[in-house]
Design goal:
- The complex is a heterotrimer of chains A (about 190), B (about 350) and C (about 450).
- Chain A has 3 helices and 8 strands; from the N terminus they run E-H-E-H-E-E-H-E-E-E-E.
- Chain A is α/β, with parallel strands linked by helices and about 190 residues long.
- Chain A has a domain of about 120 residues: Rossmann fold.
- In chain A, the strands form 2 sheets. Chain A has a 5-stranded parallel β-sheet with strand order 3-2-4-5-6. In chain A, strands 1-8-7 form a 3-stranded antiparallel β-sheet.
- In chain A, helix 3 links the parallel strand 4 and strand 5.
- In chain B, helix 6 crosses helix 14.
- Classes of the chains: A alpha/beta (about 190), B alpha/beta (about 350), C alpha/beta (about 450).
- Chains B and C meet through helix 1, helix 5 and helix 8 of B and helix 5 of C.
């Protein structure tokens, strides 16, 4: 991979095929646990969570023959670190379906401190009252700062705080993989 | 050579960062210092804010603990309430300072009032003032506060222009190449001026129509030696509205202040109506489906006919709704990156 | 009382002597004694210099008659928080001015003998330079009834003006020009037809429109200049037009002169050096404040700063002699009256201490000769003030030792915190100027010296 010979050490932890397998497995787990598509709503968190939720929906469609409704959530208005962010952007939140009484599966790419999920839970509660909220994550890198855990995990990856986990998907990035980048001494 | 006096008189080199840059915008004073990309991104954010306004519970916690003061030295209902709603939907504490019954009545200067509010920890000051440049005076002297210009004299009204741009882009798909006819007292219209900046930056074709006495001809001629390719070079002026309106995508009627007739700019309102009222007949010459806009408050039957003001082509009410969303987008943008609690990046 | 005369002889050695009244521009020595010029011209031999003479080394410096300012606002009585006769006179000394005429828009106005006496008494007590009051044209400067003009003349005024405001009423202006025919002093008018510029705060044009500020068209000045020239022509009275600011005004004066109208006129340093664009934050060709408008209230002045073509016409008029003299219209203000919106801000610039530095740009730029510049600051204003002022505008032996010594090439940065004037209101704050006064002498006494390090 590109890591060899570059000054900025990065290492791949998942390739395209592994991502695909993980999505496939998580789709199965969601169906198994919720006994089919039923009351399900897949809610992707902008930006890569939205893409991953679409992939889960495609898998579910393939396995089950029925469509799980999709929604998009932007959590920027619910963040607790607005002051520290320069030039923040908000993306549209789209809920074509009512989540009242539904089983919502939040989908995101990386689970780290848990603050994004906290914000997403706050946002969800402004949009309705689901019966249950579950969490699907492609990579869990640890270092939680809040009591939050994922129901579905593509891969658990131990990391240190001076590393960054990057999920790259073809829809938004050139590559399709997950890499760890060493930030050096800079700890965000 | 920096002295307290020099700073006070506005000669301080820090002025270079008065408006901030696109990535760290501190104040919204006019659209002249916005890049097309920044305008586009504000309009994108506005779309997200429109979604929030469409919810059952119109409240997000974004600006909890932020203090927004509206400081209006000119009467206004629509703009003040629009800012107030924008702040409140975002959970900011919004305080309205009316100029009567306040320190303004006691003769306190604008600057001292601003300094007092800064000392109280206000985050955003929304200012409307009858004098052009008043928000610039505050922006220059209040480094801890973000200033939003809610209309200054004859000069600018950037939030109105942004909501107009949003409304047009939403309906037309794109502003680039759109033919926008602005009709009326352009010379005294801060709305028209800020729209001139915004529309020309976004690639729209602007046509101004109205009495020659009310056209800002000086502005259009530009200052070539200082501003090469100045953005108004392509703006057309056509006093014949029937001709100007041909093929228009948008017709924006401006409020005609009755003072203009008293000031002798017009022989009579009757003649104005005959020549420049936006009517169904005139709109028929525009592109089919053309939008009718008005920044409000309207003098129905003067600059715009009643049937048109409330007709199918009118997006005047949408302008009002979008105004709240645009102001939310700007408050959000200005409050970000203002320091304070040390937040951990989410992941 | 300040003792003005300086008994110790002073020798200014090896300076460039610019004395336009005598057509002199040559290196030489100037010797003063007992408050008078002993000699200004050829290099003096040691035997010509008395013992105990204080010698000032002056290589590379210019010595000229002290400048005469026809038009200053010293603000006293009534506005001592803006300026006093003492601080204004000190600012004048620092600017190389040895005589200053102060305008009567004080409170109370200089419209009767008592106020003239007050100003003269204050000047005698506190002023480093000569101060000459100008009397009002009309009582209280209200534009309705003529002052007792002869009483004012007897009390010592040197001209009449309602400056700060025009004499609006054409008939009053006619009567003033007629009544003063036997008094031998000019009526100075500040020309601006206000009905053409309601609420106007800066020159009409692109900049004003860009800033959304109400404009003052050139025609507002020219309409009244025209009117006053017609009245002067009709009455034969002596008209002096204050602070011309437009190309059209220069043309009108040029034509009137050709017809033999008795008119003199002045231009201010700010209208020769600054343009309306300075209100945007442009400083000449460089942008002082990028990315945003400036609304610099220190540029707000009557008449307003105008565009480049007007500035060019004024420079030509000055070079040609259509414009007799340069007057400062020094208008100091307290900070608070400028720390407001542009529309609320007071009109006026504090000019005395930057005048020479900004005017020398015309010389450095090859627009006028140094001798012409000095002429317009000395001989020109003296001509407007009458024969008794000729003695102050020359270095001829026997005349009062009022002179200025300046370095035309010294570059310095304007720092208003160092001003002697109480008025720190100038858009030139922080600007770099080339040319600075080194010493000023009034009646043989050094009232200002700054030989630097």
């Amino acid at each position: 991979m590109a890591s060899s010979g570059t000054e900025r050490p990065e290492r791949q932890i998942m390739d395209a095929q592994e991502i695909q397998r993980s999505m496939s497995r998580i789709a199965h787990e969601i169906l198994e646990r919720n006994r089919g598509v039923g009351d399900l709503v897949l809610v992707g968190i902008h930006t890569r969570g939205v893409i991953l939720s679409q992939r889960l929906a495609e898998n579910i469609q393939r396995f089950e023959g029925s469509q799980a409704p999709l929604a998009e959530l932007d959590i920027n208005l619910y963040r607790d670190d607005l002051q520290a962010r320069e030039n923040p952007r908000v993306r549209p939140t789209k809920f074509p379906v009512d989540i009242q009484g539904k089983r919502v599966v939040l989908v995101d790419d990386v689970l780290f401190t848990g603050r994004t999920i906290r914000a997403a839970l706050d946002a969800l509660s402004d949009l309705g009252r689901p019966r249950q909220v579950q969490l699907a994550i492609l990579v869990d890198r640890g270092h939680r700062e809040l009591p939050i855990r994922a129901d579905y995990v593509g891969k658990n990856v131990p990391t240190s705080l001076d590393e960054e986990v990057k999920v790259r998907l073809t829809e938004t990035d050139q590559n399709e993989d997950v890499i760890i980048v060493k930030l050096g001494r800079e700890i965000k | 050579m920096t002295t307290p006096d020099a700073m006070a008189l506005g000669n301080d080199p820090q002025d270079v960062t008065l408006a901030g840059t696109a990535s760290t915008r501190r104040n919204v004073l006019d659209l002249d210092d916005f890049t097309p990309d920044e305008i586009a991104s504000v309009l994108d954010d506005t779309g997200a804010m429109v979604e929030v306004l469409g919810r059952d519970i119109k409240k997000v916690p974004t600006l909890r603990g932020r203090v927004v003061v509206t400081m209006f030295y000119e009467s206004s209902t629509r703009t003040r309430i629009s800012f107030e709603e924008a702040g409140k939907v975002l959970s900011a504490d919004v305080i309205n300072m009316a100029s009567s019954g306040s320190s303004v009545d006691k003769g306190e200067s604008l600057l001292n009032t601003g300094l007092t509010l800064q000392a109280m920890g206000v985050d955003v000051l929304v200012v409307r003032h009858p004098h052009s440049g008043a928000p610039y005076l505050l922006a220059r002297h209040l480094p801890q506060v973000s200033i939003i210009n809610a209309g200054d004299g004859l000069h600018a009204h950037p939030t109105q222009a942004l909501l107009d741009l949003y409304t047009m882009r939403e309906r037309l798909g794109s502003l680039s190449g759109a033919r926008v006819v602005i009709v009326g007292d352009v010379l005294h219209s801060r709305v028209a001026r800020s729209n001139l900046w915004g529309l020309t930056k976004m690639g729209a074709q602007v046509v101004l129509s109205g009495p020659t006495t009310l056209m800002p001809l000086d502005l259009l001629s530009g200052r070539d030696e200082l501003e090469e390719d100045h953005p108004f070079a392509q703006v057309e002026v056509d006093t014949d509205l029937d001709r100007a309106i041909e093929g228009a995508d948008v017709v924006m009627a401006l409020r005609l202040q009755s003072e203009r007739q008293q000031g002798g700019f017009l022989p009579s309102i009757r003649e104005y109506i005959r020549r420049w009222q936006v009517t169904d007949d005139r709109l028929a010459k525009a592109r089919s489906g053309a939008l009718v806009m008005h920044p409000g408050p309207m003098n129905e039957g003067v600059e715009i006919s009643t049937s048109l003001a409330h007709g199918e082509s009118s997006v005047i009410e949408a302008q009002v709704t979008n105004g709240v969303a645009v102001r939310m987008a700007l408050l959000y943008r200005l409050c970000a990156g203002r320091g304070g609690r040390n937040g951990e990046g989410n992941s | 009382m300040l003792n003005r005369t300086h008994n110790r002889p002073v020798l200014i050695k090896g300076a460039r002597i610019v004395d336009p009244g005598r057509g002199m521009d040559a290196a030489g020595d100037v010797l003063t004694q007992e408050g008078r010029i002993v000699s200004a011209g050829p290099i003096l031999s040691p035997s010509d210099v008395p013992d105990g003479t204080h010698s000032i080394p002056s290589n590379g410096l210019v010595v000229a008659p002290g400048f005469i300012d026809l038009h200053s606002h010293l603000r006293e009585p009534g506005y001592e928080y803006k300026e006093t006769i003492a601080t204004g006179a000190r600012a004048a000394a620092r600017g190389g001015f040895t005589s200053v005429c102060c305008m009567p828009n004080t409170d109370p106005a200089i419209d009767n003998e008592a106020v003239v006496e007050l100003v003269k008494r204050r000047a005698d007590a506190d002023a480093l330079v000569r101060v000459f009051p100008i009397g009002a044209v009309t009582k209280g400067r209200k534009g309705r009834e003529l002052c007792e003009m002869e009483e004012l003349a007897a009390a010592g005024v040197v001209a009449y003006s309602d400056d700060g405001d025009p004499v609006y009423d054409p008939n009053i202006m006619r009567l003033a020009l007629t009544y003063t025919l036997d008094l031998g002093m000019p009526v100075i008018n500040h020309c601006q037809e206000h009905s053409l510029c309601p609420g106007g705060v800066m020159a009409e044009g692109w900049t004003a429109t860009r800033l959304g500020l109400p404009g003052i068209p050139a025609a507002a000045e020219e309409a009244m200049v025209s009117r006053d020239l017609a009245l002067a022509e009709m009455t034969g009275g002596w008209l002096h037009l204050a602070h011309l600011s437009t190309a059209g005004s220069v043309d009108l004066v040029r034509q009137a002169r050709q017809r033999g109208v008795s008119v003199t006129c002045e231009v201010c340093p700010q209208h020769l050096y600054l343009t309306d664009e300075w209100a945007l934050g442009y400083q000449g060709d460089t942008v002082r404040t990028a990315g945003t408008l400036n609304y610099d209230t220190s540029t707000k002045v009557y008449p307003p700063l105008r565009g480049r073509s007007d500035v060019e016409a004024l420079i030509e008029g000055l070079a040609e002699g259509v414009i007799d003299c340069i007057a400062t219209d020094h208008a100091p203000h307290e900070l608070a009256s400028k720390e407001v919106t542009y529309e609320e801000a007071s009109f006026g610039i504090s000019v005395l201490e930057t005048a020479l530095g900004s005017l020398l740009a015309l010389v450095h730029g090859g627009r006028i000769s140094l001798s012409t510049l000095v002429d317009r600051l000395t001989v020109g204003p003296a001509r407007v003030l009458g024969p008794s002022f000729e003695q102050y505008a020359t270095l001829e032996a026997g005349s009062p030792a009022d002179l200025v010594l300046f370095d035309p090439n010294l570059e310095w940065t304007v720092d208003t915190s160092q001003f002697a004037s109480r008025g720190r209101n100038t858009p030139l704050q922080g600007a770099s100027l080339k040319g600075r006064v080194v010493a000023t002498m009034v009646e043989g006494r050094l009232v200002h010296q700054d030989f630097g390090v």
